[in-house]
Design goal:
Elements: E1 6-7, E2 20-23, E3 26-30, E4 43-47, E5 55-58, H1 65-72, E6 77-81, H2 87-90, H3 93-100, E7 104-105, E8 123-126, E9 129-135, E10 144-148, E11 152-156, E12 164-165, H4 174-185, E13 192-195, H5 204-228, H6 235-242, H7 251-266
Parallel strand pairs: 5-6, 6-7, 11-13
Antiparallel strand pairs: 1-12, 2-3, 3-4, 4-5, 8-9, 9-10, 10-11
InterPro entries: LACTB2_WH, Metallo-B-lactamas, RibonucZ/Hydroxyglut_hydro, Sec-metab_biosynth-thioest, WH-like_DNA-bd_sf
Protein name: MBL fold metallo-hydrolase
């Protein structure tokens, strides 16, 4: 699995190399890095107010020179934001920053370059927009979402456009993920989801509640599997029971989530 592990399938006709306007303030450029884990590829988001001259770029994606040059061709870049540090979102960030002479901002200082980092509650004023930073750990400990108030939330891998994401244990924690989903479920109705992979979704609250229901169901399945397997099974044994209907190429990713679920159950949440 490359970059951030995801569970889903590739679309029949993904649109590579073309900037597609999604909301009044957000357009997407799809990186050509499809896989069972990254769906059609990584969504690089370009944000600006209609009358602004510069963009904010969210998740420049893999170290793909052609993709980075395509992003740069759309205009001056004010700053670069990362939803988290998985390579399919962040690997190209440093080279892109040097290409366009813009800083990189992230929660993890490892990825911050030329500026200060980001924390929950920050407000980024750039490209004619105000972006509110939400700390949403769970998929990873450094996961962030960015809210364009009244319009959309950029969710990285916390909520996907298709399928489900994983909790990347041991860095990701299921308890944290539940809390992050509850936070997203409270966003105003019709706040669109602009995800790191897959198509945009109409309502963040609805998507987050569906994820919560799915995670709760999976957790109960894991609980029952542990009991059926004698109380102390390996994560792989649990995967073979709970994810029996999932393509085996995705079982290593599923095992990360199962490890997180077993830790959650051991801690008696």
């Amino acid at each position: 699995m490359s970059g951030s592990p995801l569970i889903g399938a590739r679309a029949a006709h993904p649109l590579y190399g073309e900037l597609r306007q999604v909301t009044p303030h957000a357009a997407v450029l799809l990186a050509d890095n499809p896989s069972p884990m990254t769906l059609d590829g990584t969504n690089t988001w370009l944000l600006k107010a209609p009358d602004a001259t510069e963009y904010v770029v969210v998740d420049p994606g893999p170290l793909d020179e052609a993709h980075l040059k395509r992003i740069a061709s759309h205009g001056p870049i004010a700053e670069i934001l990362l939803t988290h540090g998985h390579p399919d979102h962040s690997e190209g960030a440093r080279e892109f920053a040097e290409l366009v002479n813009a800083p990189v901002r992230a929660l993890d200082p490892t990825f911050t370059y030329g500026s200060e980092g980001l924390v929950d509650g920050d407000v980024i004023t750039s490209a004619g927009l105000e972006l509110r930073v939400l700390g949403t750990p769970g998929h990873t400990s450094d996961s962030l979402c960015f809210v364009i108030d009244g319009e959309a939330v950029l969710t990285g891998d916390t909520v996907l456009g298709r399928g489900t994401t994983i909790v990347a244990h041991p860095d990701g924690k299921l308890g944290d993920y539940f809390e992050s989903l509850k936070l997203l479920a409270e966003l105003p109705e019709h706040t669109a989801v602009l995800p790191g992979h897959g198509p945009e979704l109409a309502d963040a609250g609805e998507a987050a509640r569906a994820y919560l229901a799915h995670r709760t169901q999976r957790l109960e399945q894991v609980r029952r599997a542990v009991e059926a397997l004698g109380g102390a099974p390996t994560p792989r044994q649990v995967v073979e029971v709970v994810y029996a209907d999932v393509d085996r190429v995705l079982w290593p990713a599923a095992e990360w989530s199962v490890r997180a679920q077993l830790e959650y159950l051991r801690n008696d949440y």
